[in-house]
């Protein structure tokens, strides 16, 4: 049975107290999730028992390390129902998106072409395209976000046409919490010959992802948001698209043979691992995938839906709050952000922090979205498998404290 109170015990940091002995209530999982003991142990075990460089040297540790690295890569790919040769390990979502610029877009997008993205994107899926478009002389267009905080599908259909080379969009918005219909959009895009990049930073931790069923061409994710370590994530690439890409890092580990005149390269995906990989973090991410798989992603998503629904219902009772994003919990995932009327988000977060509650305040790397709606800054509470309804009750009591302090 999925019980977040039992799951909490797997995460040692959640035992901590902060701010003069207040029990930690961690509601900042969209920024980064906490790590279960199983993930921490896997990294400690790797370094205490197996550490050696991969591929190199015929000795016991090198052999163990290489086998662990490949096994971990298989586990991670399987978690996304993808093939191992469709996964390129990356440091995080940001690196994965930038890698698409260098590995694919450089050769396939040119003057006059269009990159289509949305007004709700995290800067990580916006700035790389803006900079690329300026450099290449192509244009960038944005699909509108509606007043209720959803992707305007009519606007998307209008803007999606021949000449649009890529749709780059988030699966789940880290500010609006809204889920975007990426499977439907991938189908529409492929009809006009457009490729689709999905920023899965906020969906991978909560939704069961089947890369092939989603139908997109690229799917970027960060391990640290899905109870895995920092410094490891990945880019899933449709096998057919791999044929039209090239690595953007060259060097040791990714070659077959090198002469002074020329080089032949390893097969995909090894051709995309230049230099020493972060083996310990890869092993740690595989442990995170195993942990989530054991909980069952169907249970994880159900738990998240209950939390989002509960949080929305409790927060909307507070008249001073304006919740951003759709009010229908079924359209959301992972987080709820709000504005406290007349009190700056940083002040809200500071008062909550004094009660031991960790939330995020600011623009959450979505400045254009905040500017569009003239929000200034928002406060975001975000969840993961260890979040309980009681955590949300503590948040609600913390918000009452804001009322007391500011008298409004
Ligand atoms: N995309 C979205 C939707 C995010 O929420 C984030 C991080 O919060 C990112 C991309 C960037 O993730 P990372 O910092 O792990 O690269």
Description:
The protein has helices spanning 4-8, 37-50, 60-79, 93-108, 127-136, 153-159, 182-191, 211-214, 239-242, 279-295, 297-315, 345-354, 367-372, 389-406; strands at 17-18, 22-23, 25-26, 87-90, 114-118, 139-143, 164-170, 195-199, 218-222, 233-237, 255-258, 263-265, 321-324, 335-340, 357-358, 360-362, 378-382. With 408 residues, it is an alpha/beta fold. It folds into two domains: 4-30 and 296-406, Aspartate Aminotransferase, domain 1, CATH 3.90.1150.10; 41-294, Aspartate Aminotransferase, domain 2 (3-Layer(aba) Sandwich), CATH 3.40.640.10. The strands form five sheets. The chain has a seven-stranded mixed sheet with strand order 4-10-9-8-7-5-6, with helices on both faces. A four-stranded antiparallel sheet has the order 13-14-17-16, with helices on one face. Strand 7, helix 7 and strand 8 form a beta-alpha-beta unit. Helix 11 runs parallel beside helix 14 (389-406). The two termini are 42 Å apart. Residues 30-31, 92-94, 122, 124-125, 170, 174, 199, 201-202, 222 line the site of pyridoxal-5'-phosphate (PLP). Pyridoxal-5'-phosphate (PLP) binds next to helix 4.
Provide the fold topology:
Layout: H1 4-8, E1 17-18, E2 22-23, E3 25-26, H2 37-50, H3 60-79, E4 87-90, H4 93-108, E5 114-118, H5 127-136, E6 139-143, H6 153-159, E7 164-170, H7 182-191, E8 195-199, H8 211-214, E9 218-222, E10 233-237, H9 239-242, E11 255-258, E12 263-265, H10 279-295, H11 297-315, E13 321-324, E14 335-340, H12 345-354, E15 357-358, E16 360-362, H13 367-372, E17 378-382, H14 389-406
Helix pairs in contact: 2-10, 3-10, 4-5, 11-14, 12-14
Bound molecules: pyridoxal-5'-phosphate.
Pyridoxal-5'-phosphate binds at residues 30-31, 92-94, 122, 124-125, 170, 174, 199, 201-202, 222.
